[in-house]
Amino acid sequence: MIDKRWIQIPELPSDQLEVARELAEALKVNPFLATLLVQRGVKDFEQSRNFFRPDLTHLHDPYLMQDMDIAVERLSKAISNGEKILVYGDYDVDGTTSVTMFYGFLRKIYDNLDYYIPDRYNEGYGVSWQSIDFAQENGFNLIVTLDCGIKSVDKVTEANKRGIDFIICDHHRPGDELPPAVAVLDPKREDCLYPYKELTGCGVGFKLLQAFCIHHDIPQESLFEYLDLLVVSIAADIVPITGENRILAYYGLQRLNASPRVGMKALIDIAGIKGVLDITNVVFGLGPRINAAGRIKHAKEAVRLLLCEEEQEAVDFAYEINQHNSDRRTFDSSITEEALAMIESDNWFTEARSTVLYKESWHKGVIGIVASRCIEKYHRPTIILTESHGKAAGSARSVPGFDVYEAIEECAELLEQFGGHTFAAGLTMPIENIEAFRAKFDQIVSSRILPDQLIPMINIDLELELSAVTAKFYNILRQMGPFGPGNMTPIFESKEVSLAGQPTIMKEKHIKFDVKQNGSPIFTAIGFGMSQFYQDLIKGRTFSICYNLEENNFRDKKTLQLFLKDIKFN
């Protein structure tokens, strides 16, 4: 197991400590909670009210986005003229939720439209040549892309020649040249002054529909019915849950818990999720199942499920998608084992600062997951490649602080296609270029990555005394959600703690024990995959722990427990 770095957020400067003290008094909370709020930029009563109670009226004006007026005008013209509209989305969670939202909303007011999801394996990411042929053959005049299209310059150019217009809704980084679409909605455009840059593809589509509602005097409440889809896109795409995303996620979770659409309810049930859904449930319970449709079969199945209005039909679709997810897990597990064995058997990787692996038989649908699994064991930028249509196609994942997209971009002359984010990207290259790419990519990574970035890091928000942990403390802490990037679940450190009983090893790899600190109450701590600490624990030394606080509900009895991240012995 790799040793982890514990990084303590610096103590607040004296002036901010005074702000935290005043906030604690104003909110009648303990100083630890007030400090957490100030760390997150909440510094007075008004800001705390907005933080704890986000408001949909605080969403930005969609017309602040570059090209929004043009996009609304073109969409409105298509509807008034009876043109055929094709709603086009990527095959991942963000893309499928985008299509469900956009198509589902429009079909209530207009019926001359259809949706299209490219096949992950036969068409690949982005706008495909096959989709343009499909649009032309079926008489579509307008294509609205969601979560893709920002780099499809050649495809949009060709479509224009065939009399097909595009409105692009994307959130990925643009290339040097924008596609010649009627409108390009992307807050990451350099000339876009939209105040919030971290929307998902579904979020950008939502802003277009919001502007459309404003233009046509349609009550926005009819659009807010789709916030359960939007929060799933926010959670699954791992975007910051700050600013506008925080508002959308907050209300999206409310809808997901109170009145999810029929298809989403079927998915929640078959995933076995009990109690109140949060971002973590969505990321690990719903996201993989929605993704599995496109990874194992076709992502259109996910859209069909999410558009369902009949309960039994939704249950049947959810069962089928759950089977795909089980298949995905099997592929994921076996390929991860092979990948780790390849790393361990090749001396080149001992000195390397990156991992680039290729095997032609690996299932393309799970290579991104496998890359993440490899990083869990070997903490360095990782690319997993497989054969697809005679090319090497792959997924890249990175470690905190290192921009894998920029490193891939430096190798552009060896690639046929690439795109993505700072921490995740996709790429395609001729198979004969793999060795050259592996060498150049590692050279670039080695020259840029800092030694500390190769060591897993735990960011600790606060040193906490166990005596401060109460039911009231936890209830207020829980209201600081939804948690995610930009507002992570707080991680606490408690020092000089000791055992309050004999530790137990569960299923040969997990550990559970009771812990106390001075005269504090006794808390149960659970460490998944931490059985290696057993021998040190039973020696009786004091130790430090870092952890999240969680509520355990067993036989209707609720108790607070410490969900361990790591242990260090004094």
Written description of the protein model:
- With 570 residues, the chain is of the alpha/beta class.
- It is built from 21 helices and 19 strands.
- Strands 3-2-4-5-6 form a 5-stranded parallel beta sheet, with helices on both faces.
- β8 and β9 form a beta hairpin.
- α1 crosses α2, α5 packs across α14 and α14 packs antiparallel against α15.
Summarize the SSE layout with pairings.
Elements: E1 5-8, H1 14-27, H2 31-39, H3 45-52, H4 68-80, E2 84-89, H5 93-106, E3 113-116, H6 129-137, E4 140-146, H7 153-161, E5 165-169, E6 183-185, H8 201-215, H9 221-224, H10 227-236, H11 243-258, H12 262-271, H13 279-296, H14 300-307, H15 311-344, H16 348-351, E7 355-358, H17 367-377, E8 382-388, E9 391-397, H18 404-409, E10 417-420, E11 424-430, H19 434-448, E12 457-460, E13 462-463, H20 471-478, E14 492-499, E15 504-506, E16 510-516, E17 523-527, H21 534-537, E18 543-554, E19 557-569
Parallel strand pairs: 1-12, 2-3, 2-4, 4-5, 5-6, 7-8, 13-14, 17-19
Antiparallel strand pairs: 8-9, 9-11, 10-11, 14-16, 14-18, 15-16, 16-17, 18-19
Helix pairs in contact: 1-2, 4-8, 5-8, 5-10, 5-14, 8-10, 10-11, 10-13, 12-15, 13-15, 14-15, 15-17
